[in-house]
Design a protein that fits this description.
Helix content is 30%, strand content 22%. It has 329 residues and is an alpha+beta fold. Helix 1 runs antiparallel to helix 2. The longest helix has 22 residues. Bound molecules: 2,5-anhydro-1,6-di-O-phosphono-D-mannitol and magnesium ion (MG).
Length: 329
């Protein structure tokens, strides 16, 4: 029987080549443990009383924890206790997370979306956890919000866990994108795809077509172009991690352009730079793809707000470039 490397074996091998990345390898291992907990809860959601309203009481008379509340509390508690982070930011929290005295000598900070795909959480549709790790900035207070105002190129680790028909962990230290699949029986992540490259062919586009009334004419034209001229077909799950992963593996482009819902002529992005766009843009670039907000490479944008939102067009490099140059399409 061929032996498939476990994540632990892979990280030990990585560490032998890059001994200075010891803490990052440990961080990756901690994130995989979090993924196992969330995967277990996600799989048992219907019977474990973690679906539905967070203020309900279950049949055991216990407080029902919604899956997203559970994931957020788990990420915060687990990550701050690792001691690897000077600061934590969660998509679910208004401000940076209280470190409760942990991480005073830490060298990294982390932004995470504990459970992305909120509209799908209670419907047994794929959801995910996204993470983005940077070096701590030494020129400002360790827990300052400004720790999170760094450009995407400077990420030292980014990735996601996708809770789908199987649970996969996809990450990059900046040396390619690797995928591990959770073997539920072994309780181990096993290497399932190394150095993933986004296929050159781009047969799919993923966008919420229900937003058509709110997008710009240029965006409407581009979506018509991929349909009518490029003959691409649509796949839209509505969970960013799942849509991104599908395009990473099958070839495609994901589009969440700015929306003008109140008729002001200002088109606003929905997705968050720190928790969603930036980490996925890092993976896209590492896999030979690209990401833009229409004007800039997502990785070049330096946030000036913790929860800054952005338009996001991500996936196949040529199509992302065509989008950026869409005046000429
Ligand atoms: P969330 O952070 O509230 O879960 O919202 C982000 C999600 C993404 O996973 C997904 O790409 C997008 O919102 C879907 O939005 P829509 O329902 O407007 O198509
Ligand atoms: Mg989200």
């Amino acid at each position: 029987m061929a032996l498939i490397p476990t994540l632990t074996q892979y990280l030990l091998e990585h560490l032998a080549k890059h001994p200075q990345q010891r803490d990052l390898a440990l961080i990756m291992s901690d994130l995989s443990a979090i993924g196992k907990y969330i995967s277990r809860e996600t799989n048992r959601a219907g019977i474990a009383g973690v679906r539905g309203a967070a203020d309900a009481i279950n049949v055991q008379g216990e407080q029902v924890q919604k899956l997203d509340v559970f994931a957020n509390e788990l990420c915060k508690d687990y990550l701050r206790r690792t001691g690897h982070f000077c600061a934590l930011a969660s998509e679910e929290e208004d401000t940076v997370v209280d470190m409760e005295g942990y991480g005073s000598s830490a060298r990294y900070m982390i932004a995470f979306d504990p459970l992305d795909g909120s509209s799908n959480i209670d419907a047994n549709v794929s959801i995910g956890t996204i993470f983005s790790v940077h070096h701590k900035r030494d020129d400002i207070a360790a827990v300052a919000e400004e720790q999170f105002f760094q450009n995407g190129h400077d990420q030292v680790l980014a990735g996601y866990l996708l809770y789908g028909s199987s649970t996969v962990l996809v990450f990059s230290f900046g040396d390619g994108v690797h995928e591990f699949t959770l073997d539920q029986g072994l309780g181990e992540f096993l290497l399932s795809n190394e150095r993933i490259r986004i296929p050159e062919a781009c047969p799919y586009y993923s966008t919420n077509e229900g937003n058509t009334p709110f997008i710009s004419q240029k965006d409407r034209q581009f979506i018509e172009y991929v349909k009518m001229e490029k003959k691409m077909t649509t796949r839209y799950i509505g969970s960013l991690v799942a849509d991104f992963h599908r395009n990473l593996v099958k070839g495609g482009i994901f589009l969440y352009p700015g929306l003008d819902k109140d008729g002001t002529g200002i088109y606003k992005g929905k997705l968050r730079l720190n928790y969603e766009a930036k980490p996925l843009a890092f993976l896209a670039e590492q896999a030979g793809g690209g990401a833009t907000d229409g004007a800039r490479d997502i990785l070049d944008i330096v946030p000036d707000k913790l929860h800054q939102r952005t338009a996001l067009i991500i996936g196949n490099k040529d199509m992302v470039e065509e989008y950026r140059m869409r005046d000429q399409v």
